[in-house]
Amino acid sequence: MIPIAHVLALSVALFVIGAAGFVFRKNIITVFMCIELMLNAVNLAFIGFSRYLGNLDGHLFVFFVIVVAAAEASVGLAIIIALNRNRDSLNIDDLDSMKM
Amino acid sequence: METLLILMLLPPLAGAAVNGVLGRRLPQAAISLIGCGAAGFSMLFALLCAWTYSISAAQPAPFIHSYFTWIEAGSLRADYALYYDRLTLVMTVTVTVVAFLIHLYSRGYMQHEGGYYRFFTYLNLFLFMMLTLVTAANYPLMFVGWEGVGLCSYLLIGFYFRRPAAADAGKKAFIVTRIGDAGFAVGVALLFWTFGSLNFQETFGRIIALPAGEMQGTMTAVGLLLFLGAVGKSAQIPLYVWLPDAMEGPTPVSALIHAATMVTAGVYLVARSSPIYSHAPQALQVVAVIGCVTAFFAATIALTQNDLKRMLAYSTISQLGYMFIGCGVGAFAAGIFHLMTHACFKSLLFLAAGSVMHALDGELDMRKMGGLRRKMKTTFLTFFIATLAISGVPGLSGFFSKDEILAGAYEGPLGQPWLYWLGAFTAGLTALYMFRGLFLTFFGKSRLTPDLEHHVHESGSKMTVPLLVLALFSIVAGDVSWPKAFGGSESFDRYLEPVFKPSEDSLRAFAPSAAHGPGSDALMIFALLFAGLGILVAYWFYLRSTRLPALLAERFSLLYNTLLHKYYVDEFYDWLIVRPLRVGSEKLLWQECDVGAIDGVMVNGTAKLVDDAGGFLRRIQSGNIRSYASWVLLGATVWLAYVLWPR
Amino acid sequence: MLILFYVCAVLAVLAALSVVAQRTPIYSALSLIVVLCALAVVYLLLDAEFIAVIQVIVYAGAIMVLFVYVIMLLNAGREEPSQRSRMARWLGAPLLAAFLVEILIAVWNQFPAGNSRPAGVLNAGPAAIGHLLFRNYVLPFEATSILILVAIMGAVVLAKREF
Amino acid sequence: MATFSDTGLLLLITLIKIAVVVSVMLTSIAYLTWLERKVVARIQSRWGPCRVGLYGLLQPLADGIKFILKEDIVPVEADAFLYWFAPFVGFILAFLSIAVIPFGESISIHGHTISFQITDLNVGLLFIFAVTSLGVYSIALAGWSSNSKYPLLGGLRSSAQMISYELSLGLAVVGVVMITGTLSLRGIVDSQAGFWHIRGLNTFIPHWNIFVQPLGFLVYFTAAIAETNRVPFDLPEGETELVGGFHTEYSSMKFAMFFMAEYANMITVSCLATILFFGGWHGPTFGPYLLRALLPSFWFCLKLFCFLFFYIWMRGTLPRFRYDQLMAFGWKFLFPAGILNVLATSLVVAWTSSS
Asked: Which long-range contacts (CB under 8 A, 24 or more apart) does D23-32 make?
């Protein structure tokens, strides 16, 4: 049996790696992928708990997370395409016009 | 009965709603049909109400019906309830009849004015509010009507709102009467605080049951506060200044609101609240004194006014003063009687003046008129009848009512001789200025400009028919109450006895030994003498030796100028109240409080604080997503640390 | 079984590090696909066959294809170095480390090592999930369908050339 | 040691099965190319390969040797790792999906039941979809890593095309899944045993899903052709427009891997079509035990062969689509048709199960 703590540790590791990517990477697509990584970390936690608690609801949550991720990816990538077209840059540091 | 009552109230409201919403798109004919129809139905139902009430078994007792609960807050409960007794009957019939005639008249008068639908909307709304005022069964509802008529008055005075004078007059009327309304509101609050109820029936029943002298202080305070409201609404000293300016409104408005109905609301309020005053003789004396002084004071101003409508306005103030004398001496019925007759002849005077104005293309200066009687026969005739009536010529309505008031001033429960003498003298002045106006306008040689000379014409039947009807009323309205001296029985007095008897009785308890004058016959003769003298003087001055008034004005220039400038009251108020208020507002409130304290410290200070804080915090909002992510991470870390901290 | 889990875990972590460390987005994307597949295997080991397959079909097979497609479309090359966020530069690493430590402490506090309550065999087949989805979660399910529709329209509108 | 023998035996059997399946697959792929060349040649009134060996039967071997011996060219600007990785992953994935395909019924040897299937997942169908959905990377990455314009265009085309048609593919299968109520391929095949009965009357029509899912089958097979990038949907490698599409720059064994992956995929989707719609291995069985055990596999291969032949037949017959037509066809016809099929099937299933 896989100990729940180990599953969670894996989840945490993936999440923190994703967060690190978000904080340190400048390519907006990479940053986006880091978000997906974090979502997956959370999904893993859901599945782990689902197994641990013998409850299927976690699977449903993962299901919904995946659906939302799909929607998010489609819209997000469309935004990236539009951004790239208008600004000719994929560097997230260049996209800072939303400020005072 | 309750159906009839509500049917009396609803047509004007419906008319106002229809005209107000759809009027812009309706043809004039439809608007006037709706407006006059509403007023007509209202009159019809008012008469039906009167008839139904008169033949009902419980007749002298008031009919009260509550339609729904309007306000319920704590122990305060105000229903939408209507109150119908003989006083209400007189008021509703007077109001609806005069209003209907003036609606008819307005069809002609307003024909060529803009905002036809607006005018009828306001007029209908006014009628509804006025009826609410006189039929209300409690003070809050009455206050609604009170404020409603004030609002309509404001709207109608400022009807020609593009003219600064009209707009200013509207504001003036609104603000000045507001002072009185504050008094009314405080008085009502005090009443509620004392009795825990604002229903007429309940409150009055408890007041009447009070032994004489009990709670006199409270009653006096309530009475004075309510009278403050009446002073504002009925244009008495010191709050009369708005009424002359209110003549900026269309003439039918002046006739309806500022002569016949709304301004008499104050009188109605005092009469309706007679049980309160019956326990506050001091307050009542104040009413009488103010009424008497106002009557005299306004009459003297009216002597020198050259503007026809302004003269009539001061005349109205003066006559309202009479009504307050009547109420103030405890002769409430006499006051109401005068209210009724005055509604007839004063509205007639205004409408006739409007007819003149119509003919002369808006000219109102009497010095530029003259000799109109040949060209405007009907107008002249009706104006003449009204003048006779107001001057107190025997046989016409004004004679009876004024005589009754003067008799009351001497012999009433709180009557005092000097009230009578000043009143009688004022009656002479009334005759003088009214005939002056008559002579200047309709007699003598024409002083019109040649342009106008051709323009002069008699008004159409739309306007003259109401004039004639009102003239008829002006003659016969007094006949409902022949004085004892003429072998009559003062039947109007007797008719209203169920309403006022308890109050008058309790007043007599305060002044058991009212002055016993020389008897009503003698009183009447004196008054008649004064009136006759006034007419004669007017005839002498303005028809025979027309240079005399100018000479007199020169000789007594100080007096004349004082009168011409209305005792400089407007200037005085300006100096006493308006100027300090403005300067105070500017210097203290605006520059110090507003700019310095509120703007400087509170508004700008807050803004500056926010601005500074924002200036510091905006570094956080760099627009850089990675920074934001770091902040989120910081938050999460701190929160987790807080959660995990061993406790 | 346990060994397979650790292999996959290590693979996932390494691939995740690669996602972050790669300078070229396409390699990040491929690394992410490896993470996803490794996680799919982990899901299988955790009795979540349906989710595992869905993970591969939807995540690896559709979402990541979209990523790869966009990377190819925009021809995203190596990222230019820029350090416009002082916050991220100086505080990023310490904060991440602190966060990792904290959350690991939380996990260990809650589930001391070795605590693995065997909860029987979880029947997580498509039928069971379908039952749950169309009985208890019908409303969210329908809501997601609307969400997807909105996302489709949003993507079309956003990516259209005429702005 | 019992546990060892059990686990070890299972492992051994599985390994043997994998070896058998892979070698059979490789051989069939090799001879599929031969078949294709032969059939297309006949369609075009040519002979096809006939020099190397009898009827050119050694031609695939010669081709293989040629591929291996050829120079492996890597373009200068290409991304070396991905350039290598792309065909590799395509090849691997193509073979991976074979793992859950049941080729026939089980056979008992010494009390051990050995099924003609490497492993039976209860989400086997989804597994195949998962694996095929990953196949797009192979082509997309090949196109991108070549760092050349035609391959890139081919790669982009293929990613869009495969994602689009995968939807129709999935939808087409849903009908079958709803009827059989399982995602296990073996379960699906089992449910197609016997004959259709109408009011208890044996019609002697095989109990195959094709007879209740004709629309599903058409949608499935059309989408499958697109998924495998075969004529008339071979836009990603359309040589008339894109030189060679995604594999323009490839040569030698890497090119061969693409080729093998493509043919493996053909075999996989044909297997799937057989399993889903044509009763899998079901067919008349008779004779001794061994024959009875092997006949199902024969029927399966026969059906599979028909599909493969159909593939080749189409290649020799149909012209290529234009790209926008391809997308319009996929989204505006195939996808709605799939939805219609799902809708109709679900209504019928709901009606029959409730009555």
From this structure: D25/D95, D25/D98, D25/D264, D25/D267, D26/D260, D28/D267, D29/D260, D29/D263, D29/D264, D29/D267, D30/D60, D30/D61, D30/D63, D30/D64, D31/D57, D31/D60, D32/D263, D32/D266, D32/D267, D32/D308
Rounded to whole angstroms, how far apart are CA atoms D236 and D90? 15
Domain count, chain C: 1
In C3-62, the residues whose Cβ lies within 8 Å of chain D are 26, 30, 33, 40, 49-50, 53-54, 56-57, 60-62
d(CA C101, CA B637): 10
For B65, residues 6+ apart whose C-beta sits below 8 A from its C-beta are B1, B2, B5, B81, B82
Neighbours of chain B (3+ CB pairs under 8 A): A, C
Is C85 among the domain residues?
no
> Which helix (H) or strand (E) segment is B63 a member of?
strand B63-73
Question: Cα(B635)–Cα(B644) distance, rounded to whole angstroms?
Answer: 14
pLDDT mean across residues, chain B: 83
| Cα D256 from Cα D72, distance rounded (Å) | 11
CA D1 distance to own-chain centroid: 41
Q: Is residue C120 part of a domain?
A: no
The residue in chain C having the minimum alpha-carbon distance to the alpha carbon of residue A40 is: C36
- Reported as a single tens digit per residue, the pLDDT across D313-322 is 888 888 888 8
Taken as a whole, chain D contains a residue count of: 355
Q: DSSP label at D78?
A: S
ipTM exceeds 0.90, yes or no:
no
Q: Would you call the peptide bond into D232 cis, given omega within 30 degrees of 0 as the criterion?
A: yes
DSSP of B350-384, one letter per residue?
HHHHHHHHHHTTT--BGGG---GGGT-HHHHHHHH
Domain of residue C138 covers: 125-163
DSSP string, C39-108: HHHHHHHTT-HHHHHHIIIIIIIIIHHHHHHHHHHHT--SPPP----HIIIIIHHHHHHHHHHHHHHHHH
* Mutation to test the C interface, candidates A39, A65, A67, most C Cβ within 10 Å: A67
**pLDDT for res C73:** 79
d(CA B640, CA A45) in angstroms, rounded, equals 18
Say how far apart CA D340 and CA D318 lie, in whole Å: 27
Q: Does some domain include residue A99?
A: no
Contacts of B90 (CB under 8 A, 6+ apart): B336, B340, B496
A87: domain range?
Answer: 4-92
Q: Which of residues 240-299 of D touch C (CB under 8 A)?
A: none
Rounded Cα gap, residues B466 and D18, in angstroms: 116
Bridge partners of residue B79, in order along the sequence? B69
Contact of C149 with chain B, judged by CB distance below 8 Å, is answered with: no
Q: Is pLDDT of A100 > 60? A: no
pLDDT, one tens digit for every residue, chain C (163 residues): 788 888 989 999 999 999 888 888 888 888 898 899 899 889 888 888 888 888 888 888 888 888 888 888 787 667 677 766 677 777 788 888 888 888 888 888 777 765 555 556 667 678 888 888 888 888 888 898 899 899 988 888 887 766 5
A23-57: pLDDT as tens digits: 888 888 888 889 999 999 999 999 888 888 888 88
Nearest chain B residue to A28, by CA: B625
Answer whether residue D50 shows pLDDT above 50.
yes
Q: Where are the domains of chain D?
A: 1-69, 72-354
Domain presence at residue C156: yes
In a domain, C152, yes or no: yes
Query: What pLDDT does residue C47 have?
Result: 81
Distance from CA of C139 to the nearest CA of B (A): 31
Helix (H, G, I), strand (E, B) or coil at C111: coil
Q: Which residues of D touch C68 (CB under 8 A)?
A: 137, 140-141, 144, 159
Q: What are phi and psi of B365, to 5 degrees?
A: -80, 120
Query: Domain count of chain A?
Result: 1
For residue B253, report the phi and psi dihedrals to the nearest 5 degrees: -65, -45
